[in-house]
Design goal:
Subunit structure (chain A): Heterotrimer of A, B and C subunits. Subunit of the heterotrimeric GatCAB amidotransferase (AdT) complex, composed of A, B and C subunits.
Radius of gyration of chain A: 30 Å
Bound molecules: zinc ion
Strand content of chain A: 5-15%
GO molecular function (chain A): ATP binding; glutaminyl-tRNA synthase (glutamine-hydrolyzing) activity; transferase activity
Number of helices of chain B: 16
Strand content of chain B: 5-15%
Radius of gyration of chain B: 22 Å
Largest sheet of chain A: 7 strands, mixed
Number of helices of chain A: 19
CATH class of one domain in chain B: Alpha Beta
CATH architecture of one domain in chain B: Alpha-Beta Complex
Helix content of chain B: 25-40%
Enzyme class (chain A): ligase
EC number (chain A): 6.3.5.-
Largest sheet of chain B: 11 strands, mixed
CATH topology of one domain in chain B: Amidase signature (AS) enzymes
Oligomer: heterodimer
CATH superfamily of one domain in chain B: Amidase signature (AS) domain
Protein name (chain A): Glutamyl-tRNA(Gln) amidotransferase subunit B, chloroplastic/mitochondrial
Chain lengths: 515, 513
């Protein structure tokens, strides 16, 4: 129910004009936090999503703020693109590779070396721009952003300043600074300062992560720094149009820490305001300390830096043709939000929808399974239940398990058609997950075909009744609860293969038969 | 009329240090070939009249003789003999050798060479040896050329006299008390004194053309993008081009063809086809038949105004008359934006240089100042590493790009650049080539303008517009003015439409010589 609120708020903005519109103006507390969504993903237990209340001590403060103050939150997201090579040379780059192993005259900034733009960077930018329904600039350019830094070999970054490749969500190309990663292609996505709570902000970031993963432009991993969010927070009295002093928060390694950091920062600023010490809020960069659950000053801003931007003379302007953009548009995968709406129309619960659409690989697995004719709800249940639990235990992703969608569909059909029982189905599933193979092969190999021959079941029932005269007597004496005991015994004899319906029918007949 | 032009061929083309002649030049020929050292050398080598080793030795001997007076080289290769020997082996075995086989090439020291130091004339790069060859150098080597050494220059190309080199002052071979021009003064002097056959320079605001004029050699500044800049230490990236020096138009044309073409390592290099410039040269015996009939020549009025040496003006007018005699129609044209080019150039070039030179921060290259704190490291290393002219331009450029000044300087200069480009385009729609002096005067005394940077900057008035417009231009000797030992050479600048180095300029010029 809570999840559905979240979902519907997305649905309302089906055109997705810009990402910030997604989460704008929701009703305070009605959120499913990212944390619970993640837990759901991971454990696959069908728990009800719990609204996570950030910090009990802060909740009251925040409640108070909501009356008098309003927070203004903007997010700058850096997405490291998986272009295989760096942005301006052909050096490969991998996260975690030893320092300075993949460098050349160009990324070292040696005298005489020149940058040459990797066309995949533009391709990724266009993909993300289109997916966010931004307005693309068919003519854009690169600029130099200048400052001294030990790991900045040229003394400037190549970036886009005043003519970004896509606007409307504002999309920016940027390059980071350290030498081993110098030239690693980054996409910078800047939100409008439209968010009001930590949770809203972390939902925004999570949706961006989902999107870049769907598009295959980045692995979106926050721990590795492939997706980095810097958050700007200010507060102002409600009704005031002018923004308060802006504080930047860095070191946010997960969506939940982002939410908590923002909420902490809001309450810190509000407390200062309410104590008449609003002028103590400095324009500065603060670090989120996960251990202490608070933000601390990292560095004060000494006025605005002058980066002395000017057009990069080493790179010609980026000119996109309509044909190029159209080709990319045609190749775009279904967006997360479109997928969610489609799943919802199939009759899946909101919880199922959120889970399945969260990861594009899971969604693809699900889509392929139902394309093979599997029942939608059953397919969802299997994926979210035993398959997800197995993935979690074995620390595998859905692309790494041995089970293929074709066989899951087959399994579901075999159970539905009565060839095997649900219990045996599970047994087969674990075989498929661990070793692969086909449903048919496993059934044959393990001799697991369900026993549906009444005569055969009758024989087993008779055998069990004969072996348990005492219990039979008790049953017939009125202790009918023992039916379960007999059913269990027969199932055991059949090695679990007896058709449960048939078994019970015959068992009841025999138990009640006057011999 | 011909006598007023003083066609260089009828004069002693080379100053007094270079009077010994090459054995290769005496080769008899039935059809007069275009005047070209490169072609003469090729004929002499392939007909076994001379070996590469002999040829290289004669140049090296002259180099050793003249270098103490001229100081054109910062570094002389010790691999010349070995490379010459290798080529001789190939020729003896009748193997294919490239069009530059046996040609000794001087390379300006801001162009990277893998086996030699490349300092850009700056202390910050003292001892620096790049791990790669500039694309132009690589191509020269692949086609048989022998890099004889690295030539002196104003630090990072910033200057017009070569006095701003951190290492030495190069002298003008026509009068050693005078500057060779700059910033490619070493490359110009080396060709002028026959220390090498041809040389590479770089031209950001006239750094090939002005020294060519001062040293009495041919200097060719290609269209922006014609030659890859990969391996050229950036001064002002949107203006920089690698150019050629030679003792004839044919030599610069042959060298240009070798180094031209698209390079995937330079995104601004052009994908246009590179024509065979040499095949376009007209034969000298066509001279009597008005071979330039129909060629429209525009004489830029603003370049013959006050402030230009009267001797220079009369030489240019004389050359124009000579062009008319060869069949050209010469008209005087006006480029009203001409005088705006100089300040715009200095704003743009300084702005770009302030950025391009940021990489010399003391962290990576020689001359690291011994300090603990990071900002002091940057500050001290740069204070000690850069010379005054470079510092002046970094300061000017940083100022022009700063918040609050950007619109008044950088942006306005870009607008002027657009204006200049348009006015040249219009003039070149009406004319095939535009003509002007290459510099307002002949070579001046060493030290004369050293403490007056504005006077030195003003000397670039003839050339900077061509860089702003990205056009090709060629400077060749058109006579002498009084001064020095036996007169000082003066060059005429001929400007063509973009990528029109060939037809309209080279044909005309080779005949003019
Ligand atoms: Zn690289």
């Amino acid at each position: 129910m809570i999840a559905s609120t979240f979902f519907r708020s997305i649905q309302n903005h089906h055109l997705l004009l810009y990402p910030t519109a997604l989460f704008r103006r929701k009703n305070g507390v009605l959120y499913c936090t990212m944390k619970s969504t993640e837990a759901q993903t991971a454990t696959q237990e069908k728990e009800k999503p719990q609204p996570k209340i950030p910090h009990r001590s802060q909740t009251r403060t925040i409640d108070k703020i909501s009356k008098d103050y309003e927070a203004v939150i903007g997010i700058e997201t850096h997405v490291q693109l998986n272009t295989l090579t760096k942005a301006f040379c052909s050096c490969p780059y991998n996260y975690g590779s030893p320092p300075n192993t993949s460098i050349c005259p160009i990324c070292m900034g040696l005298p005489g070396a020149l940058p040459v733009l990797n066309s995949k960077v533009i391709q990724c930018a266009v993909k993300v721009g289109l997916a966010l329904n931004c307005k693309l600039s068919l003519n854009s350019k690169f600029d130099r952003k200048q400052y001294f830094y030990p790991d900045l070999p040229k003394g400037y970054q190549i970036s886009q300043f005043d003519v970004p490749i896509a606007t409307g969500g504002y999309l920016d190309l940027d390059l980071p600074v350290d030498l081993n990663r110098a030239g690693v292609p980054l996409l910078e996505i800047v939100s409008e300062p439209d968010m009001r709570t930590g949770i809203e902000a972390s939902e925004y970031a999570a949706e961006l992560q989902r999107l870049v993963r769907y598009l295959g432009v980045s692995n979106g991993n926050m721990q590795e720094g492939s997706l980095r969010c810097d958050v700007n927070v200010s507060v102002r009295p409600i009704g005031q149009s002018q923004f308060g002093t802006k504080v930047e928060i860095k070191n946010l390694n997960s969506f939940s820490s982002m939410g908590r950091a923002i909420d902490f920062e809001i309450s810190r600023q509000v407390q200062l305001h309410s104590q008449g010490q609003g002028d103590l809020i400095a324009q500065e960069t603060r670090l989120w300390e996960e251990g202490a659950q608070k933000t601390v000053t990292m560095r004060k801003k000494e006025g605005l830096s002058d980066y002395r931007y000017f057009p990069e003379p080493d790179l010609p302007g980026v000119i996109l043709t309509k044909a190029y953009v159209d080709a990319i548009r045609d190749s775009l995968p279904e967006a997360p939000e479109m997928k969610r709406r489609r799943y919802e129309k199939m009759g899946l619960s909101m919880q199922d929808v959120l889970f399945l659409a969260n990861d594009i690989n899971v969604a693809q697995f699900f889509d392929e399974t139902i394309a093979k004719g599997a029942d939608v709800k059953l397919a969802a249940n299997w994926i979210m239940g035993d398959i997800a639990a197995y993935m979690k235990n074995e620390k595998l992703t859905i692309s790494e398990i041995k089970l293929v969608p074709q066989e899951l569909a087959e399994l579901i059909a075999s159970i539905k058609g009565g060839t095997i029982s649900g219990k045996i189905g599970k047994e087969i599933l674990f075989g498929l997950l661990a070793k692969g193979g086909t449903v048919k092969g496993l059934i044959e190999e393990k001799d697991l075909v369900q026993i549906v021959d009444p005569l055969e079941i009758e024989k087993m029932v008779d055998k069990v009744l004969a072996e348990n005269p005492k219990q039979l007597e008790q049953y017939r004496g009125g202790k009918t609860k023992l039916q379960g005991f007999f059913a269990g015994q027969v199932m055991k004899v059949s090695k679990g293969k007896a058709n449960p319906g048939l078994l019970n029918k015959i068992l009841v007949e025999r138990l009640n038969a006057k011999s | 009329m011909l006598s007023t032009l003083h066609p260089p061929r009828s004069l002693s083309r080379f100053p007094r240090y270079t009077l010994c002649t090459l054995t290769a030049q005496s080769s008899p020929s039935t059809t007069p070939p275009p005047h070209s050292q490169i072609l003469s050398i090729r004929r002499a080598l392939l007909s076994r009249q001379v070996t590469t080793t002999q040829l290289a030795e004669s140049y090296l001997t002259r180099l050793r003789l003249t270098e103490p007076h001229l100081k054109s080289f910062l570094h002389v290769s010790d691999a010349v003999s070995q490379q010459a020997h290798c080529l001789d082996g190939k020729i003896a075995r009748n193997e294919e050798v490239g069009p530059l086989a046996g040609v000794l090439v001087g390379v300006k020291d801001n162009i990277c060479t893998v086996d030699m130091p490349s300092t850009g004339g700056s202390r910050v790069l003292d001892g620096y040896r790049p791990p790669f060859d500039a694309t132009a150098v690589r191509k020269i080597k692949e086609l048989g050329g022998i890099v004889v050494g690295k030539t002196n220059l104003d630090e990072f190309g910033m200057g017009s006299t070569t006095e701003a080199s951190a290492f030495q002052v190069t002298a003008n071979p026509w009068d050693v008390s005078r500057v060779p021009g700059g910033s490619s003064g070493g490359s110009a002097a080396a060709v002028s004194a026959r220390q090498c056959v041809v040389s590479l320079g770089s031209d950001t605001g006239g750094s090939v053309r002005q020294p060519a004029s001062f040293c009495g050699v041919v200097g060719l500044k290609p269209t922006y993008g014609r030659v890859s800049r990969y391996g050229l230490m950036a001064y002002a990236s949107s203006l920089d081009v690698i150019g050629c020096f030679g003792s004839s138009v044919a030599d610069t044309g042959i060298l240009l063809r070798v180094i031209s073409g698209h390079d995937r390592l330079d995104a601004t290099s052009s994908k246009r086809e590179v024509p065979d410039f040499a095949s376009q040269f007209a034969s000298i015996n066509l001279l009597e038949s008005k071979p330039l009939k129909g060629l429209r020549v525009g004489l830029i009025r603003q370049t013959l105004d006050d402030g230009v040496d009267s001797g220079v003006v009369s030489l240019i007018r004389g050359a124009a008359s000579h062009l008319e005699e060869l069949g050209c129609s010469v008209t005087e044209i006006s480029l009203p934006s001409f005088s705006l080019g100089l300040p715009a150039y200095y704003v743009l070039a300084s702005s770009e240089s302030s950025s391009n030179l940021s990489r010399y921060d003391g962290v990576r290259y020689g001359n690291q100042a011994a300090v603990d704190e990071l900002n002091s490291l940057y500050g001290d290393s740069r204070a000690k590493g850069f010379g005054p002219e470079v510092k002046r331009r970094i300061l000017m450029g940083t100022y022009a790009l700063s918040a609050g000044y950007y619109d008044a300087y950088y942006k306005r200069a870009q607008q002027v650049r657009t204006l200049v480009r348009k006015s040249f385009k219009a003039a070149l729609d009406q004319n095939d080539i535009l003509v002007s002096p290459a510099a307002p005067s002949a070579a001046y005394k060493i030290g004369e303008k050293k403490d007056d940077p504005l006077a030195m900057y003003a000397g670039d008035i003839m050339t900077v517009n061509v860089n702003l417009a990205g056009l090709p231009a060629l400077v060749l000797p058109c006579g002498f003015v009084e001064g020095g030992v036996a007169g000082l050479p003066v060059g005429i600048q001929m400007i063509g439409a973009a990528f029109d180095e060939v037809l309209k300029i080279l044909i005309a010029i080779d005949i003019l010589i």
